[in-house]
């Protein structure tokens, strides 16, 4: 019985982030990072605004499946206000988690921890990591600018 309640909670959180994504849209005067997942057609355009070493604002737009959209929304919630280093660490924790690796630091992912079950569906891993990969690329480009 507890498993079905957990499954229901998982579905509710993922569905809510997909239907009502947080930080959805574009930021003005910020370079867009565009990535796609050719396997299923997910597309993301990520805008990240930095204030020194900190992510001061973030937004995403694009088309994607439920997992991709929910993961993008969850990622923006998890990294806003974090330093580049902290955000990269969260991206690494998330990537390992969706590949089935356990880590006590997963709690730091916030709602994104609900996507741990993606590891049971290898074909969905790329959907869940698309936004996180865009974030890593945005941080890498920002580092190169400085």
UniProtKB/TrEMBL annotation:
Domain NIF system FeS cluster assembly NifU N-terminal: 10-127
Classification via InterPro entries: NIF_FeS_clus_asmbl_NifU_N
NCBIfam families listed in its UniProt record: SUF_scaf_2 (TIGR01994)
CDD domains the record matches: IscU_like (cd06664)
MF annotations from Gene Ontology: iron ion binding; iron-sulfur cluster binding
Matching Gene3D superfamilies: 3.90.1010.10
Family: Belongs to the NifU family.
GO biological process assignments: iron-sulfur cluster assembly
Organism: Streptococcus macacae NCTC 11558
Protein name per UniProt: SUF system FeS assembly protein, NifU family
